[in-house]
Design a protein that fits this description.
The protein has 68 residues and is mostly helical. It has a domain of 31 residues. The protein is 49% helix and 0% strand. It is built from 3 helices and no strands.
């Protein structure tokens, strides 16, 4: 049986101004993508850039486990 918690998607909510919403909507449209996909790509790209020099565990199941 597949564990739903390991394969489920997570939702992130953030609050922006009307002007920020307009800018994101325009940028997404220029990239021919949805706002959700655009925001997801930007957040993931920025997160990967910030953490590029940190060795992160590959999956949640590896966190806290002894590698030996």
């Amino acid at each position: 049986m597949i564990n739903d918690t390991d394969n489920s998607k997570r939702q992130i909510k953030f609050h922006i101004t009307a002007d920020e919403h307009r800018i994101i909507r325009l940028a997404a449209a220029l990239g021919d993508t949805s706002m959700a996909e655009f925001c997801r790509d930007v957040v993931l790209r920025e997160s990967q850039d910030v953490t590029k020099n940190i060795k992160l565990p590959r999956s949640k199941s590896n966190v806290g486990k002894n590698p030996h």
